Each structure stands twice: as C-alpha cells, then as structure tokens.
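#lab-general

N.A. 3:47 PM
ok so I finally got the sequence cleaned up, no stray characters, all 329 residues accounted for. can someone with queue access submit it? mine expired

B.Y. 3:52 PM
send it over

N.A. 3:53 PM
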Amino acid sequence: MLKWAWSLVLLPLIVFIAYKREQAKHRYYADLTISTLDNFSTDSSAKTKWNNFLPILRYMALFFLLIAIARPTALSEEEKITAEGIDIVLAMDVSSSMLSKDFEPDRLEASKKVAADFIDKRKFDNVGLVVFAAETYSQCPITSDHDVLKEMLSQLQCGLINDGTAIGMGLANAVRRLQESKAKSKIVILLTDGVNTAQQYITPMQAADVAKKSGIKVYTIGMGTKGRARAPVARRHNGSYVFGWTRVEIDEELLQNISDETGGLYFRATDMASLEQVYAEIDQLETTEIEQTVLRKEHELFYIFIWIALALIVTEILLSNTIFRSILR
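B.Y. 4:20 PM
back already:
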C-alpha cells in the first residue's frame, strides 16, 4: 500500500488545475450591457447553490479512486493449533455391583456421565474404552472420534457378560490396546468398585508389570461409599435384580499397588462430587502439549473504494444532466 500512497498528493494539484480551468471558461463568456438590474433577483436560488456542489462529487470520486490505487488491505489473524495428544484407555467395571445405589442413579450411570465429561475435555487425545466383569472386551477402539466413543459409552450395561470382577483381565486388555500406540504418553484409567474375584489368566500385578514395561501409566479409581450400600444380591428369572444392603468392599491396597508400579495414582471416589474431582485431577496431571502458530492474512479493500467512486461519478452525471442541467454546460 505504501508504494502507491504517494499518488494521494496529486489530488490537491488536480483540484487546483480544475479550478483554474473553470475560471478560464468564464473569460470567454460574452458581456451583455443592460440599463438596470432591478428585475433580476440578487439572491441565488437553492438550485444554484447545489449546482456548485457537483464538482465536489467529482473530486471526491477522484479521491476514492486514488485510495483504491494505493491498494489498502486489512490484516486478519488465524491460529493454527498443532497438538501432541495422549492416548488414553478407560477400563470400566461393569459387574452387577456397579448398579449399587450409593451414587445417583447408580454407580454405572454416574461413572458413564463423568467419563463423558472427561472425554469432552480431551479434545486433542485419542481415547478408547474397555469393559470388564468376569470377562473383558473392547467396547470402542482408540479413536479421535469422541462422538462415536461417547455413543458407545452410553450403551454400557451390566449383565451382558458373566458376572465377577476380573481386574487383571480388564487391565491387560487395556494395556494391549496401547502397546502399539506411537504416542509419547499413554495412560489407562481403571475404575472398579470391588475386589478381584474372577478366575483369570493374568493377575492384576502381572498386568501392571506389562504396563510398566510398555511405558503405560495406570490411574486407578475405587468407586463406592464407605460402609454399606444398596446393591444387587440376586437376580430373578426375568433378568431383573434384587437389591439388599451389603458392605462395600474395595481392594484399595491392590489398586494402590497397581498405580505405584506404573507411576500412576490411586483415587477413592465415595460420591458424585469426589468422582468428578478425581477425573478433574487426572485431567490436570495429564496435560496435552499444544503448539500454536499465528497466521496472518491480508484482505484487499480497494474494491470498496472503487464502488464508492463509481457511485459518486454516476450521481454527478445524473444530477448534471437532469436537475442541474444548464445551457452553459
């Protein structure tokens, strides 16, 4: 823009030349001698006054054309975000005890809600979902499509696989999903509400050892109130559960050992607020590296001034040939 800005200094010169030209035109008008001016009004009409305004339109149009030649631009900034995400697998207990009523409406639904909120915060991370009871399976592979992941999470139910709590199998399945990951940081968040009871091919500590050797950090969460809770104690022929008061038993020592072995942490969640706090702490502990690059774009504005100049020129032509038309023009 600056290299053309000098053209604006031409405007006063052009105005001066135009003014001298108008003066020169009046020199060639013939003189008319009359005896008296009594019959002529000495007051200029409104039309005459506005007629003197027409050249100003022309000069204004020229001014805007010179601005357009200078090629004015506007700068806009965009942020390009490059993120190095973390690969995460949620390993969630779906044994029947997860239907206990010490959380609203039960442990499973509460854990699903908080996990979904956690996923929303990890927008740059790949997240997968593994579930376990007496058996284990992958509910959703590691993915960056969080909408699909949350849909799969919402479909979790108790009672679809054999009942029990195979912590070792669940952890081993989660670790296996992360072993081929190329991410620099890989973590498992294992949530359970009970004691390792199911017969399994790999023990919890064996699975923790594999996680350690694979560079996978395991955060463990023990979910359940302290004391007693209304929990499923039997199942009817139609598949519905019979609830009764039972003592809440969580193998906190085992969960603590798993997290210690892998460099993670153990948390105890006794209500909804503390469960939300647990996930918030994990979110703060495992931050994603984000690199921001600012890109600047130039937007041409010259066409705006061209349109203004054209509008002024057209207005001047229309007025001079209609309302302010003169025989002297």
